Amino acid sequence: MKIFNTLTNKKEEFKPLREGEVSIYVCGPTVYNYVHIGNTRPMIVFDVLRRTFEYLGYKVTFVSNFTDVDDKIIKAAKAEGITEKELTDKYIAAYEDVRRNLNLLFPTYAPRVTNTMDAIIKFIDNLVKSGYAYEVDGDVYFRVSKIDEYGQLSGIKIEDLVAGASERIDENDKKEESTDFALWKKTDEGIRFDSPWSKGRPGWHTECVVMINDIFEGGKIDIHGGGQDLKFPHHENEIAQSMACHPIAHTWMHNQMINIDNQKMSKSLGNVIWAKDMVAELGCNVVKWFMLSSHYRNPLNLTEEVLNSVKKEVAKVDNVIKSVSLYLQVNHIANENYNKAAVDGMVGALEDDLNTSLALT
What we know:
Blueprint: E1 2-5, E2 10-13, E3 21-26, H1 37-55, E4 59-64, H2 71-80, H3 84-101, H4 117-129, E5 133-136, E6 139-142, H5 158-165, E7 181-186, E8 200-202, H6 204-215, E9 221-227, H7 231-243, E10 249-255, E11 258-260, E12 263-264, H8 275-282, H9 284-291, E13 300-302, H10 304-335, H11 340-360
Parallel strand pairs: 3-4, 3-9, 9-10, 11-13
Antiparallel strand pairs: 1-2, 5-6, 6-7, 7-8, 11-12
């Protein structure tokens, strides 16, 4: 089996860390709203990958997290007039409903950031003590300059980042270098946690690294997956932190994005489609067929024409399945010697229908 490794930018023969076992981690949603259809593409793509490994006889440990502490969550909770915990519980339940309605396997583990806080603080503290991170006024930043391989996943060079940052210098920036990123943020707003540096909450890029360390032995996994939009800075910064200890994953996989009528899906354009609405309207099979109608590394464009084509293709397959089902039922009756002459006529008609359906598929 060969997999395209985003880290090396080439197809490679898959060799698991442990014989007969596969460890997969896929970045999950930040739960401040319902998930849109773009969020379902990695759900479906990596569900197919997982099922493929299981079909081949591997024991798969599949992990996908929930980010339940974030500035967007604080803002959304205020807007809805509920606590952050109530908000995240609500949208995690809605996300799981989408997973269930798409007939996807549930993860082996689905950790929440808020339940991993002690391990996150310990991890950041170790980075500070080893010189890979530093504290300024209660905030903690990672020293990107300590990682020679920085940019290996995204292909972005540090000098280009520095040049871009120089055009938007913030006089209040506390960082040693413009490329450094936050591991811990001191804050007076929203949910906060005690740490050696301040009351605050972790930076997004640290959370997944720690959850992998927390669940998988040695903090190493076979495959780390997610959407193309996570390559930089999220996954690049995950790799940087893990390089301070050990490489985090052997293989990186990224699915491309979904466009609506050749336009990027965004709230400003008003073209966001919630996954729950699309599944309710079109059904599980149509949505999944559409998501798998293009290679996972290619962009997927949703148009009325494409959807109509997908509906027809799914209908053809449904007709075949229904015909085969009836065929088997009728044959069973025939074997029981019930009115055999009449049954033979029914079987002949069903065979004709089945052959027609297969010809169209």
